[in-house]
């Protein structure tokens, strides 16, 4: 028998994961293998209720993980010109999966986004005052964020859903173009704003533990504190490439090269830190999980 079982049953853990071909979904499968957790990827499409019911009937999971969604390629600007496709997966699809899980008495761990807030008067940049789980989203500048905020609000009514507000995800795989570090090292110019971010190497295992504990509700799923673009690029220069240099530009200049505005914010990670006291502050986690293992420059 598995050490931890879902609620009332003593069934061994069995995870059903959506997002097989995606970044987060791919990493989740590897983590399950490393932890010898039984898992299967869902073959259904989120907006197709019958296909989800069929996955659940054949896999008989103890928990469902949703790492499926549209994020846009090359970036979220895609959602501005593909609104129906964005709604189909991120709104209709996510709600359908939550509802099917509810009917099957299953906890759904949902990788959502924290890009639904922006610094404001009550949470100014540099203040250390982050948005809390109960705060109402105040950023609807992009269609992607607007729909994610709507869905988060509706999902509050599902007591089986664990909403994880992921932000600017980073992993130790610096060759992955989705990695926030890889993205900003490849941009011609970058803004320089402190933000809350999610170190996947540290936090994805925590999300598995959250499933084992059957945690639900909204969670700011970021490392405590903030880090700026320049602070990350300085670490990149100091650990990976001594010749690396970059150019900054302002938010106004950035606005000219993107379609939709982007969110910048600090999320308050106190709730997650209380549940997982070992959670590292963002800059420590960056060094520990990303830059030290990838170090190219010998320690002086
Ligand atoms: N990456 C980020 O910057 C970021 C930041 C914050 C939050 N998140 C959230 O985290 C989640 C996962 O992100 P990710 O970066 O891993 O995404 P990703 O690499 O773009 O992968 C998305 C996955 O979703 C699947 N998918 C898309 N539409 C689907 C549908 N209708 N039914 C079933 N599967 C569908 C895709 O499969 P197909 O190729 O078969 O469509 C793919 O496997 C998303 O909801 C995203 O909003 C991401």
TrEMBL record:
Pfam families in the cross-refs: RmlD_sub_bind
Single Gene Ontology BP annotation: UDP-rhamnose biosynthetic process
Any one Gene Ontology molecular-function term assigned to this protein's record: isomerase activity
Pathway participation: Carbohydrate biosynthesis
Keywords of this entry: Isomerase, Oxidoreductase
Annotated InterPro entries: dTDP_dehydrorham_reduct (IPR005913), NAD(P)-bd_dom_sf (IPR036291), RmlD-like-bd (IPR029903)
Ranges of residues in domain RmlD-like substrate binding: 16-186
CC terms in the record's Gene Ontology section: methionine adenosyltransferase complex
SUPFAM superfamilies from the UniProt entry: NAD(P)-binding Rossmann-fold domains (SSF51735)
Protein name per the record: Bifunctional dTDP-4-dehydrorhamnose 3,5-epimerase/dTDP-4-dehydrorhamnose reductase
Organism: Dorcoceras hygrometricum
